[in-house]
Amino acid sequence: MTPSNAPHLPSWCIRTDGSGPWQVESSVAPQPGPGEVLVEVHAFALSESDWTERDTGMPAVGRPLVREWDWAGRVVSTGPGVSPELVGQNTVAREALEDRTISSARPAKAGTATDVETRSRQVVPGLLTGHLAVSRSALQLLPDGTDLAAAALLGRASVAAEVLESAEPKAGERVAIFGAGAVGLLLVQLLSLARPCEVVVIDPSPERGALALAAGATRHCRTLDAARVANVFDVVVDTTGTAAAPGSACLLAARSARVVFTRTFPEGTPLLDRTMLALRELSLLTATVATSRAWYTAVRAFDEGLIDSRPLIAREIPVASLADGAACAGDGSTEALVTVLLST
Question: What's the whole-model pTM score?
Answer without folding.
Answer: 0.83
